[in-house]
Amino acid sequence: MLVSLNWLNEYCDLSDLSPEVIAETLTQLGHEVEGTEVLAPLPKGVLVGQIKTAAKHPGADSLQVCEVDVGADSLLKIVCGAPNARSGLKVAVATVGTQLAPDFKIKASKIRGEPSQGMLCSEKELGISEANEGILEIEADWKLGSVLADHVNTGDVVLDLSLTPNRADCLSYVGLARDLAAKLGRKLKLPEVKAGQSELPTSEKVKVKIAADAGCARFTALSIQGVKAVPAPDWMQRRLKAAGIRPINLLVDVTNYVMLEMGQPIHAYDERFLEGGLIEVRSATLGETLETLDGNTVKLEPGDLLICDGQKSVGLAGIMGGANSEVKSDSTDLIVEVAHFFPTQVRKTGKRLGLHTEASHRFERGIHVENIDQVSLRVGTLLERCLVEVGEPAPQVSRQILDVYPAPQTPSKIALRLPRVRSFLNLNQLSLDDCVRHLSALQFKLIDKTTERMLFEIPGFRHDIVREVDLIEEVARMEGFEKVPYELPRMNITPNFEHPIIEFTDHVKVVLAQLGMTEAISFPFHSLVDYEKLALSAGHPYWPTKELLNPLNEEMAFMQTSLIPGLLKASRLNRHHGHKGSRLFEVGRTFYDFNAAALDKEKYPLFRDWDRNELHLTAKAHGETSRPTERNLIAGIFDSPYRQQGWNHKEEAAHFFHGKGLVEALCASFGLRKLEWHRPSEAELPFMHPGACAKIVSGEHVIGYVGKLHPTATLKWELGGDCPVVFELDIEAFYLAQNQELEVDPRPRKFPAVVRDFALVVEEGLSYSDLEAAVNEFPKKKHLKKMHLFDLYQGEHIDAGKKSMAASFVFESLEKTLTDKEVEKESQNLLQWLKQKVGSELR
Amino acid sequence: MASLIDNARKLQEEFTAEAGKVRETPRSSLIEELRVSWLGRKGALNKLYEDLKSVDKAERPEAGKAINQLRQSIEKEVNELKELAVGFEIKEKLSRTPVDISLPLKGELSQGSLHPVTLMRSLLLKAFRRLGFTVYDGPEVDQDFYNFSALNIPEHHPARDMQDTFFLKDKNFLLRTHTSNIQIHAMLQEKPPVRLVAPGRVYRVDNDATHTPMFHQIECVVVDRGISFSHLKGIIDSFLKSVFGNDLQTRFRPSFFPFVEPGAEVDLQCTICRGKGCRVCSHTGWLEIGGSGMIHPNVFESVQYDSEDYTGFAFGFGIDRMAMLAYGLPDLRQMFTGDYRYLSQFPIYR
Fold first, then answer.
1. CB contacts < 8 A (A, B)
2. pLDDT over 70 (residue B107)
3. Of A88, A149, A514, B236, which one is least surrounded by beta carbons within 10 A?
4. What confidence tens digit (pLDDT) does each residue in B202-242 have?
5. Looking at the partner chain, which of B161, B229, B235 has a beta carbon nearest the beta carbon of A425?
6. In chain A, what is the straight-line distance between the N-terminal and C-terminal CA atoms, in Å?
7. How confident is the model at residue B7 (pLDDT cuts 50, 70, 90)?
8. Helix (H) or strand (E) holding A459
9. Are B106 and A646 a contacting pair at CB < 8 A?
């Protein structure tokens, strides 16, 4: 809300305070000042004038000699250099003697030999804006010779306030003045109201009917006859403009002015267009339409509040008037409506129709029902004053306000306990009198008190005050939050119920970063197309199903089920930036709906545990079975190349083993060394390279997968060239897998190990894990500790269909130094066993 | 006989001269040559021993002694030279061209980096854990009850306009607009006292230069008997000081958040100019950091806490904003693009 300090002074005199102090006070009251506009004062000597003639200066090409009418008997001769000076133009004339700036007084002079009796001013010269392109062009219908300062708002400061939705009362000058007056200990001055003088009762003109379901607690109508839609007085126009409202004519302006002044929306009808002598407030029926003031036709639904006359609907209650009854330039007789409408209903209708007006903004937040008749009187009073001021005859304001108020509200009463205020705010010096003083200043009425307890009647404009704690806040606001001391609470030590997976996740991030990965965070919104590019389709656990009702755009309509699309987008972006080979990881939340369609665990064993909500998410505690499943995943990507060429090495493409190595190192960091690598089915991971991808398994836990992206997916994601390597792990499974007893062999090793190398020729289909399993099962194992594969070879000297696997076998005893003979014997046994088990021959 | 002894003496002189030369550059190869020519099978010493056979028996012991002395002296010198050679040869090796220590080793053993939001999050959690807080997590997709109505934000209340909400097509669910939903989840699950923080992602329908549809908040909740507004100020002041420095002051201004009463906006002295006034703080010296307040009794009642017996406070601050201030990052949106060159500048510990 824009607040002119000049206007505000009318209700609470703050003229002795600087704008900074006022702004600071408002901020300390909870009305944040977001901006301040200072309008410099305009000297009285600047008049409205009109250029009658403009002729070229005989002595200078760029100058003109103008004859200017400032309403005086004779025209002023003024030399002007502005390119837009032309005959007929209305201008701002700084007359001789005007002190335009501290060091600039306008004098009668001669410019290049031509006399000049003043100056035509630009906006910059007037100090009202930075515009200095030419002189100010006045379009308004202001009287020639009138003082310009009377028309425009100058010498004022306008504050831009950000008001919180609870303080409906502060959507008005009176409301803000009330808060300021209370805080600063000043007097609040309410606007002048007086009853109308016309004997003609409003009820002769119109009847008012409120339907039972109409959501209207009070409705007043006031008949004002003999008005004229003249321009409002300058001061009123100026203030409206300062508040950001465009003046239209007096009849409209007065309703806006009083709304800003008192916070109550007002609507004026032209009596001619109200048919049947009736105003009715009722709920709309299905299919009804109304053409609103802004020329649009809105479709109504039951529940929308309509104002109707005897024949038709004339307004959307609390939101906008109808076009058919609005005040026109020839209106003479008005019916002024000041009413209450239920906040919820106004808000519902406004939201649905996308209509948000100054009126609906106030109704939604709640208006002061008891004050409605005062507002009505104020409209009559002000209209009369203004018409007289601009030289029009006084209107006939009805002595009687037609006031339909079926169930007058009784003010609520709230008790305030002194000990509670003191302990709540830790202000132990606060006295009962302090509380009473503060709250009385805010117009809370003390109706009872004991030594420790006060009972207040809550003024009707404070809808936000409903409990004791609200009164405590008022006391705190008046005292000032800065008075509350800083103190740390003293608390009992209580067991920490933090789930270890939270800290575990943070450790995972640190380990990944230390392993060379850079953390990214991306938006979790993707499109189905993003998942189609990964060869996924409906039924797959990764197929997104949680769709947003109101996404930012089509590309961001679905909640992610995997972090891979986000990482692929990031890699693609980095490629576009000319950066290849980024190594990124992300830890993020993914969303699934396993309620609607059960997880097919047979077909997708990789995901078999994903349909239970994660351990540490609290939602499950309340038996809400229909919640979407949320899981935290870790994913990473090695864009190719893994390493750029350097002065000491060649370029290295990203390959499966970079990913596998990273996962192994990550797991080993948490003591998890026993991992199995299973080949996924194509159905499980259709976007992964079928030949270079593995599921990561540890005992009963399927941790995730790692491998190369499928060449087709790589192409579709525009990551051409070598396929990137990606991995994705389920944090819960990883946590559970590593959360095992640590396996450490604590026995001392004092004797040297003996190493024997053998090259074994085997079938080419034999996997390392087959060989490893056979070694592990070696029945005559006594001293064999481990096997280290150091070469794989196929080609010359090896039969087709075979390969050579060369490995070092380490023999070690905890009790003694092994003899050659012992090692030789066990080696021979081993070779024999392997021959029998996997058909290997010594090369 | 005399001639043999003379000969030995002469040879001693010869050897001393030769060894002296080797001593100048005691390389193993030269020493070996020296050893072979003197002590080798065909060396000078063996020749002397040959000659000894033709010396008179009576004179032989004396002559033998002279030869033995010569041998010992040669052996001693050779051994000494060998020792010298070790040091000499290392020194010689080191004097060869050193490596160009300025050569870059890009991507050889490179560490990665953590996201600035993660860095700030860790800093905050560290500060809160030190104060005895429990870290909490909770759902990002939630129901109206947890995100709004239990937090004293009824439907059709203008306060809902303060946060533009993403809804799922299944309208029973929405994306949480703040981490305050954790208040409800936690309090429904735990009996007081409660002392928790909950960092997490939140979502609002917003996308412009200073807003992203997803951002991060940290929620803090304390509930116990006798908790006052003073404690709220104390805890906030304490953790902001531990993150941004002890010299910065905090300021509390009345504001409105439906789930707290009184509600306060928290300002921190500008982290850039330390309160003097600069462009970042619009020359006010203060930065708006987040919202806070005493938990509204309506909230306590929605989780069946006794609002007479217990009081508490809660606040929610933007992690991203704090990260931007702490690390001098002007652009919120850049943090969420996955731009490697930007992200890889950040450290792992901070």
1. 274
2. no
3. A88
4. 999 989 888 999 999 999 999 999 999 999 999 999 999 98
5. B229
6. 90
7. confident
8. none
9. yes
User: How far is the C-alpha of A403 from the C-alpha of A391, rounded, in Å?
Assistant: 31
Write out residues in chain A with pLDDT < 70, as ranges.
Answer: 613-625
Q: Which residues of A touch B218 (CB under 8 A)?
A: none
Per DSSP, chain B holds a count of helices (H) and strands (E) of 11, 9
3-state secondary structure of B326: helix
- Identify which of A14, A503, A753 has the alpha carbon closest to the alpha carbon of residue B197: A503
Contact list in A for residue B132 (CB cut-off 8 A) is: 491, 493
Residue ranges and CATH numbers for the domains of chain B are 2-94 (no CATH), 116-343 (3.30.930.10)
Closest Cβ opposite residue B256 in set A165, A581, A628: A165
- Mean pLDDT, residues B110-120: 94
Question: What span, in angstroms and rounded, lies between the C-alpha atoms of A515 and A521?
Answer: 18
Under 8 Å between Cβ of A639 and A581: yes
Per-residue pLDDT tens digits for A252-284: 999 999 999 999 999 999 999 988 889 999 999
Cis peptide before B347 (omega within 30 of 0): no
β pairing state of A583-592 and A518-519: parallel
Rounded to two decimals, the pTM is 0.85
A550·B142 Cβ contact <8 A: no
How far is A371 from A443, CA to CA, in rounded Å?
14
Closest CA to A501 of A599, A580, A401, A616: A616
Q: Which two tokens stand for residue A706?
A: 């790692």
Return the pLDDT at A331: 92
pLDDT at B152 over 90: yes
Parallel/antiparallel/unpaired status of strands B194-203 and B134-135: parallel
* Strand, coil or helix: A842: strand
Closest-approach residue (CA) in chain B for A28:
B253
Contact A487 B231 (CB under 8 A): yes
For residue A743, count CB atoms less than 10 angstroms from its CB and return exposed for 0-12, middle for 13-18, buried for 19 or more. exposed
- Please classify residue A88 by burial: count the beta carbons closer than 10 Å to its beta carbon, then call 0-12 exposed, 13-18 middle and 19+ buried: exposed
**What integer pLDDT is reported at residue A617 of this predicted model?**
58
In chain B, what residues touch A577 (CB-CB under 8 Å)? 339, 341
The per-residue pLDDT for B2 is: 60
For residues A92, A98, A102, A107, the Cα torsion angle rounded to the nearest 10 degrees is 110
Q: What is the 3-state secondary structure (H, E, C) of A329-378?
A: CCCCCEEEEEECCCHHHHHHHHHHHCCCCHHHHHHHHCCCHHHHHHHHHH
- pLDDT value at residue A621: 47
| CB contact at 8 A, A613 and B140 | no
In this predicted structure, what is the pLDDT of residue A543? 95
Of the candidates A519, A546, A647, the beta carbon closest to that of B118 is on: A519
CA distance A545 to chain B (A): 10
pLDDT for position A326: 86
pLDDT band per the 50, 70, 90 thresholds, residue B93:
confident
Query: How far, in Å, CA of A119 to CA of A102, rounded?
Result: 16
Mean pLDDT of chain B: 91
Does residue B50 carry a pLDDT above 50?
yes
Partners of B95 in the β-ladder: none
- Confidence (pLDDT) at B283: 86
Mutate to test the interface with A, among B228, B241, B295 (most CBs of A within 10 A): B228
ipTM for the predicted complex? 0.87
Look at residue B28 and tell me whether its pLDDT is greater than 50.
yes
The 3-state DSSP class for residue A7 equals: helix
Query: How far from A351 is each of A217, A344, B331, CA to CA, in Å?
Result: 22, 10, 33
